[in-house]
Design brief:
By secondary structure, the protein is of the alpha/beta class. The chain is built from 5 helices and 5 strands.
Length: 144
């Protein structure tokens, strides 16, 4: 199973707040079999403790340290939010990337995602992606 596939991409989402955005990202991971349903609560818990907003319109929600047992396999989900969603402190996320990382995959994935999203041209392509296939292609080209 690929860590990113078209069934884990949601385009043109319109969440009412950051918690709904995180739930969308988490549900994609749960539906794809990467995590059990309780993982979404751990993603919310993490956000309440420490914002997962990274800058450049990107948030990368993930579970707390004690949520490893809820992760079944490593996976990424992508929620594209053209109108943006408030992540607090005046920060707006247009891209919410959920991560469920088994074992020690966590930092490698975070690093890869951050590198892809640090390039303005990639962010532009990501925000213009009109199909899940196009989105997956952008990320796969940047994942080493």
């Amino acid at each position: 199973m690929s860590i990113l596939s078209t069934n884990k991409v949601k385009l043109n989402a319109k969440p009412k707040d950051k918690f709904e955005a995180i739930r969308l990202a988490g549900q994609l991971l749960v539906d794809a079999g990467h995590a059990s349903a309780g993982y979404i609560d751990k993603m919310i818990e993490r956000e309440q403790t420490l914002s997962t907003f990274m800058g450049n319109g990107l948030a990368i929600p993930h579970g707390t340290q004690d949520s490893k047992s809820l992760i079944l396999s490593t996976g990424l989900s992508i929620v594209q939010i053209p109108d943006g969603v408030d992540f607090g402190d005046g920060e707006t996320a247009n891209l919410v990337i959920g991560i469920a990382a088994a074992g020690n995959d966590h930092l490698d994935i975070l690093t890869n995602v951050a590198m892809i999203c640090s390039e303005d041209e990639n962010i532009e392509q990501i925000m213009q992606a009109s199909t899940p296939e196009a989105m997956v292609k952008i990320f796969e080209s940047g994942m080493e």
